[in-house]
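Here's what a typical entry looks like (Serine hydrolase):
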Amino acid sequence: MVQTQFTIAQSDSAPQPQKKKARSSSLDRELTTALAGFHGTIGVYVRNLRTGETVAINADTLFPTASMIKVPILCGLFDKIHKGELAYDQQLVYRDSLHYDDGIVGSFKDGTKLALSKVAMLMITVSDNTGSLWCQALAGGGATINQWLDTNGFHQTRVNSRTPGRAANQAQHGWGQSTPRDMADLITYIRQGKAVSPDASEEMYRNLGHQYWDNDGLSQIPPDIKTACKNGAVNQARSEVVFVHAPHGEYVYCVMTKNQKDESWVRTNEGFVALRNIAAILWHHFEPKSTWKPSAGYEKWW
């Protein structure tokens, strides 16, 4: 059962909108109706940064992040760069010992040279797993990234994999864990130039705007609208955090699922469908005069 709550509190470090937050009964009802009958647990956090309109549905419940944990890894990596311990354009050497799976980075030959900036780009843009674990190590490991998160007020978000003392958390949540509110606040923190430094935030945000996996929530937002996004998926969980530069006011949202009965990897997976439905509801709620919808036949590309 989906439990609905209206919550306006945020972490101390999270960006605050200019106006007092407004609870949205109509949007809450529409989202709750859309989520009714979901076979698993689903959480949603939405905030319009212009009006303060907010909806929270299981927004403070812990969920597996899957690949969304790569946003905190990116922050930890840029913190090292900001401190002068790494250089964004430094040349790295790939070794077979780094191999995790056969993504782009994992397909490189031993001894291949490439810039750190390219590995970071592949981590975010195509969600490359081998590159992401490489970045996690370069950032100082999960414990260092978790310390950055805690220092910056993101107390619910943690890296679990390859992190001392977090084996039990990894068994429950996988690579990382967070809440819809925390992930939405984190991407907003980056957007507003408060993560690491203004210049680091700007480059991180540019990376988050280059998303290859655009067939879920992003497919329900017009292609000429600027967005920043990271998604993640494992068998029983599908998640997505999106910052939308809508014409009538920026808004951010995060959808996370867990314990899904539908573990399929097709477009009609219940979690993927929920990501698309929520994105469409939010777009038309915040842009009620928009008549845009995906082109007929768009789904054939996926």
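The radius of gyration is 19 Å.

More examples are in the samples folder.
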